[in-house]
Design a protein that fits this description.
This protein is mainly α and 181 residues long. The protein has nine helices and no strands. 22% of the residues are buried. The structure holds heme C.
């Protein structure tokens, strides 16, 4: 019964989660894995955060997460929470644009699989979806230019516009959820 220890973390956590339906064996697993209740809880939260995604779903989630991190970094700079560095903003924006250009490939037909948060509308309205992705790429390019020009005011406005392109797509093509803004 040490098997769960050798498995990847998320599978172990899934096993633990599944075993919750059977309190007795849940105890057994907890004891054998040496995990406290809190460990079990946090292991399961990690699963929720990564959602046990695989394949295309995992790849696009990871890419979206990366885009989110770039947005945070840029946001801190344009809002004066971090030292403004136009070249860093340009680089981060270009990374966002690059992710965006590759993103459509990560939404092939038939990739509407659990635990995706993409809505079936992505595939029903593929043109609208790709248009929304192009809007994001364009907005990221505008932001990169503002960064290169070292223009904080313009960068701030472009950051807001880029953020709107995220929200615009999410509102139509992504399932609503509590996390991720
Ligand atoms: C053209 C549509 C579109 C655009 C533009 C877009 N997203 Fe997304 N985003 C999605 C979809 C669809 C998902 C859900 C993917 C899935 O679960 O399969 C998602 C998921 C996410 C997630 C959650 C990833 C996870 O781990 O579940 C984050 C964070 C995110 N997007 C950030 C952003 C940010 C920041 C921007 C703008 C800079 C952006 N997105 C632009 C469609 C878009």
């Amino acid at each position: 019964m040490n098997a769960p220890m050798k498995l990847p973390g998320y599978i172990t956590a899934l096993l633990l989660a599944a075993s919750w339906a059977l309190p007795v064996s849940a105890e057994g697993v907890r004891v054998q894995s040496g995990a406290t209740n809190i460990d079990v809880f946090s292991a399961i939260e990690i699963v929720v955060a990564h959602k046990g995604a695989t394949g295309f779903v995992k790849k696009r989630m990871d890419r979206m997460e990366a885009i989110g991190a770039e947005m945070k970094l840029i946001g801190a700079m344009v809002r004066g929470k971090k030292r403004f560095d136009g070249s860093k903003i340009a680089a981060a924006s270009e990374r966002i644009a690059r992710h965006g250009r590759k993103m459509n490939k990560l939404f092939p037909k038939g990739s509407w699989k659990k635990p995706t948060h993409a809505l079936p509308k992505v595939w029903k309205d593929w043109r609208g979806f790709t248009r929304a992705m192009n809007t994001m790429v364009r907005s990221a390019t505008v932001l990169a230019e503002a960064g290169r020009a070292g223009n904080k005011k313009r960068a701030r406005a472009a950051h807001i516009a880029l953020g709107k392109s995220c929200i615009g797509c999410h509102r139509t093509y992504r399932l609503k959820k509590k996390k991720h803004r």
